[in-house]
Amino acid sequence: MAMLEIEGLNAWYGASHVLHGISLTVEPGEIVALVGRNGAGKTSTIRAVMGLMPKATGSVRFADTELLPLPAHARFGLGLAYVPEERRIVPGLTVRENLQLGLVASDGTIDERQAIDEIARSFPRLKERLDQQGVTMSGGEQQMLAIARAMIARPRMILLDEPSEGIMPILVEEMGVLFRRLRDEGTTLLLVEQNVEWALKLADRAVIIDQGEVVHRSSAAALLADKAIQERYCAV
Ligand SMILES: Nc1ncnc2c1ncn2[C@@H]1O[C@H](COP(=O)(O)OP(=O)(O)OP(=O)(O)O)[C@@H](O)[C@H]1O
């Protein structure tokens, strides 16, 4: 059974029809890179999975549950996590308090102190800053916090929207190591990226979206080697 199966997904912003029959699957424990140029529909696709598009039709199944009829908050409870492009680190809250927000949907089933200890082991940079205001950290550290907050409730799948954007190369590298480890531990990842080469080196499979349609599916390695297709659909 696929972890995520999107079939014939259409979506709209008001009268503007932006996704035209997107179909793609993500198998358990794999990293799929979703690429394509600005405005192609990558963000809209993951927003539709999370229940954040004003209108969406078709089918989106997560571990065999049909998501489209469910409100956004019910989707988080199923073990899906989302790291949006704008990181939404809450002003006025410390790093620890931002992490605690990631546990709200788990209804007290996860031991908070243990979960924060575990996360702090994976993110040494956050460990040193648990009592600091989240928004005082660098952009890259805030991105790591947003990812840590998504991971803390141990979701089965994480959707990430351009996690490497605007981040120092050293942190991008750390993030790659983290994503591989997550995958090796069984977490499924759907990664929207403009940093195509980095994403393809990390991912198992790749899907390209162009003008709201899927135009290419292959192994990540095959797309990495195919500069012509990358130029045609991913050049900025
Ligand atoms: N809030 C909105 N209202 C109306 N149209 C929107 C809105 N957000 C995005 N769009 C339009 O929807 C289409 C798909 O955008 P989307 O953000 O999904 O693309 P993307 O591939 O993620 O690109 P980017 O990398 O720029 O985020 C584009 O034509 C865009 O202009």
From TrEMBL:
Recorded hits in SUPFAM superfamilies, A to Z, give: P-loop containing nucleoside triphosphate hydrolases
A GO molecular function assigned to this protein is: ATP binding
Keyword list, A-Z: Amino-acid transport, ATP-binding, Nucleotide-binding, Transport
One Pfam entry name? ABC_tran
Query: What InterPro entries has UniProt attached to this entry?
Result: AAA+_ATPase, ABC_transporter-like_ATP-bd, ABC_transporter-like_CS, BCAA_Transport_ATP-bd_LivF, P-loop_NTPase
Record domain ABC transporter: where: 4-236
GO terms in the biological process aspect are:
L-amino acid transport
Going by the entry's taxonomy, the superkingdom of the source organism is recorded as Bacteria
Annotated family = Belongs to the ABC transporter superfamily.
Protein name as it appears in the record: Branched-chain amino acid transport system ATP-binding protein
